[in-house]
UniProtKB/TrEMBL annotation:
Residues 18-35 have a biased composition (Basic and acidic residues). Signal peptide: none annotated. Residues 18-38 are annotated as: Disordered. InterPro entries: FAD-bd_oxidored_4_C, FAD-bd_PCMH, FAD-bd_PCMH-like_sf, FAD-bd_PCMH_sub2, FAD-linked_Oxase-like_C, FAD-linked_OxidoTrans_Type4, Oxid_FAD_bind_N, Peroxidases_heam-ligand_BS. It comes from Microbacterium fluvii. This is FAD-binding oxidoreductase. Residues 38-217 form the FAD-binding PCMH-type domain.
Length: 482
């Protein structure tokens, strides 16, 4: 019996039918929504149904030095959950219970596999909601949101995942269960290991439970504004002006000309004016109408053509245009989906940098932005290369390309696309920004992480990883490039 077969045999003995080695399951575990995939299938997919299942899996993995990659719904965009040869895919998607809802304390305790939208549907009768609102809310899990430190359309006003989690139950690499954080609004006993775990992309432990900080449902109407501008720089400047005005919209999304045209084509809508960019903004709460009027005045003063609706259905239709960005890019071909953030006042300058990169590299980079918090999603659309790219350096491939267990690729992102991406990342850092606002590092951003963190912090973070994962079995090859 080979070592790999022995590992699978141990898993089967401990977990029985929850160990899935069907070709369909193994193939699905290779990829996430980024389009990146490992060319070799994992050893097995463990479909955990309980904390005990996770503990058993990690005990076997530690004893046999077998890598483990934790997966939820597979909606990530950085390749962090992709599982390759010699690895165990540990799926917590089936752990989807709401354990407890305390409306008096504004908390819920949930398992990691629950879908965002399902959670909020269950909370609504209690008059509550969980604020994180990624564009993938209908298909992404709370555990995946926690693993990546997700954000979304509402985070400028209501915060990101890190602001909405009070505590976590985590299984460590050796199978021990630890309970981090608290159920109280305040709590400063010891180091904040809950925040450390959020955004760690499965490299420090496996989240098996979460105590979430809830909000009351927002009373009052929702107002939606759609403002069209002659070009994306004007739209970006207008969004910065809204932020500077002191009015706090719940949603402020920006679509450049290329992304707007692609979505209109996908949804069979009339083509927008050539070069036009659009801001879609929502206000909520008792002051929604007054805030919408104030924002409309700012946008009109910045040169926008503004329409305001108080109809909730029409507002959702307008936001559906923004939420259709990812399928619109998929329809265009192979896409490297990126995620940088800059200070909100630097949005116009960042769009200037994107325009420069488009000119210098002869490409189009459709870009949308959570303009309310300065988070941009540039999309590099291309025909995949088959040998001249540099995915071994960058740690990824894209679209229909494939990546090995450690992130190198056989079908590669073309050299000029990686060069353009490199230029874009460095431009964001020069403007005081970051390589990733919400997607995480995964395999896509490993090459550049040290540039942002600096040598001292990079080494410190590597040392933290070693403390949590001394055998090196938790999602190896992700986040750090060596």
């Amino acid at each position: 019996m080979t070592a790999s077969a022995g590992v699978v045999a141990q898993l089967r003995e401990a977990l029985g039918e929850r160990v899935d080695t069907s070709p369909e399951a193994l193939n699905e575990a290779r990829a996430d929504k980024s389009g990146h995939a490992a060319p070799e299938a994992p050893l097995a997919v463990v479909r955990a149904a309980s904390v005990a299942d996770v503990q058993q899996t990690l005990r076997i993995a530690t004893a046999t030095a077998t890598p483990v990659v934790t997966r939820g719904a597979g909606t990530g965009l950085a390749g962090a959950a992709n599982t390759g040869g010699g690895e165990i895919a540990l799926s917590v998607r089936g752990m989807d219970r709401i354990v407890e809802v305390r409306a008096d304390d504004l908390i819920a305790v949930v398992e990691p596999g629950i879908i965002n939208a399902d959670l909020n549907a269950a909370l609504a009768p209690h008059g509550l909601w969980w604020a994180p609102d990624p564009a993938s809310r209908a298909i992404s899990t709370v555990g995946g949101n926690i693993a990546t430190g997700a954000g979304g359309l509402l985070c400028a006003k209501y915060g990101v995942v890190r602001d909405a989690v009070l505590g976590l139950d985590v299984v460590l690499a050796d199978g021990r269960l630890v309970r981090l954080g608290h159920r109280t609004v305040k709590g400063v006993a010891g180091y904040d290991l809950t925040s450390l775990m959020i955004g760690s992309e499965g490299t420090l432990g496996v989240v098996v439970g979460a105590t979430l900080k809830l909000r009351r449902l927002v009373p009052g109407a929702v107002c939606t504004l759609a403002a069209t501008f002659a070009d994306v720089r004007a739209a970006a400047a207008a969004s910065a002006a809204v932020t500077a005005s002191g009015v706090q919209p719940a949603v402020m999304e920006l679509m450049d000309a290329a992304s707007l045209a692609a979505v209109h084509a996908l949804l069979a809508l009339p083509a927008p004016a050539e070069g036009a960019a659009q801001l879609t903004i929502q206000t909520d709460g008792p002051a929604a109408a007054a805030e919408a009027d104030a924002i409309a005045a700012v946008l009109s003063g910045a040169g926008g053509e503004v329409a305001v609706t108080h109809d909730a259905a029409e507002g959702e239709r307008l936001l559906a245009i923004r939420r259709s960005m990812h399928p619109a890019m998929e329809a265009l071909g192979t896409t490297l989906i990126e995620d940088v953030a800059v200070p909100r006042s630097a949005l116009p300058a960042m769009f200037d940098e994107i325009a420069r990169i488009e000119r210098e590299y002869g490409i189009v980079i459709p870009t949308v932005a959570h303009a309310g918090d300065g988070n941009l999603h540039p999309n590099f659309v291309f025909a995949p290369s088959t040998g001249s790219g540099t995915a071994a350096d960058s740690g990824a491939s894209a679209g229909s390309g494939t990546a090995t267990d450690s992130g190198t690729a056989t079908d590669l992102v073309p050299e000029h696309i990686w060069a353009a991406a490199d230029d874009l990342f460095r431009a964001a850092l020069r403007l005081g920004g970051t390589l990733t606002g919400e997607h995480g590092v995964g395999v896509l951003k490993r090459r550049w992480l040290r540039d942002e963190l600096g040598d001292d912090q990079w080494q410190l973070q590597r040392a933290i990883k070693q403390v949590f994962d001394p055998v090196g079995i938790l999602n190896p090859g992700k986040v750090f490039d060596a």
